[in-house]
Amino acid sequence: MVRLDRFRWWHIEEVLPIEADLFGVEQWSPAMFWNELANGHHYRIATDDDGTVLGYAGLTVVPPDEAWVQNIAVRRDAQRRGIGRLLLEELLAEAARRGARRTLLEVAADNAPAQRLYAAYGFEPVGIRRGYYQPSNTDALVMQRDEE
């Protein structure tokens, strides 16, 4: 069974290997996670029954009515089990609780599985940020979902 909890500072060391595996040279540093947590952004951690970290996700709400999905990551050996969906649903619920009328995210232009997940939740492409991910120079597709 997967459990979602508040992402706390002590989880940072546990998520770094997932970051390194999934994002390589473009991984977030410990300082980036510390900054997100220190600024009070909404972060959740997904764990299994024995407390092993399976994934994590974060959301930034920009008043008065905008939210940004900062990241969603699921350990490779835990992918395709609905954990990414569970994390995304939690972020979207928090965005709604905080009055966001629009939720945006950036996803690597070559990450088709993630784009399909976001599209299934009503996200649509609204722009491209050329060379956004560095040092690979990969473009980011900006996707947006409007609340009804």
Automatic annotation (TrEMBL):
Q: What Pfam families does this protein's entry cite?
A: Acetyltransf_1
Q: Which reaction does it catalyse?
A: N-terminal L-alanyl-[ribosomal protein bS18] + acetyl-CoA = N-terminal N(alpha)-acetyl-L-alanyl-[ribosomal protein bS18] + CoA + H(+)
Class of this enzyme = transferase
- Give GO MF terms, alphabetically: protein-N-terminal-alanine acetyltransferase activity
Locations listed in the record: Cytoplasm
- Grouped into one coarse class, the protein's main location is cytoplasm
Q: Which family does it belong to?
A: Belongs to the acetyltransferase family. RimI subfamily.
Q: Name one GO cellular component term.
A: cytoplasm
Q: Sorted alphabetically, which InterPro entries does this protein's record hold? A: AcTrfase_RimI/Ard1 (IPR006464), Acyl_CoA_acyltransferase (IPR016181), Bact_Acetyltransf (IPR050832), GNAT_dom (IPR000182)
The name on file for this protein is [Ribosomal protein bS18]-alanine N-acetyltransferase
Could you tell me which residue ranges the N-acetyltransferase domain spans?
Answer: 2-148
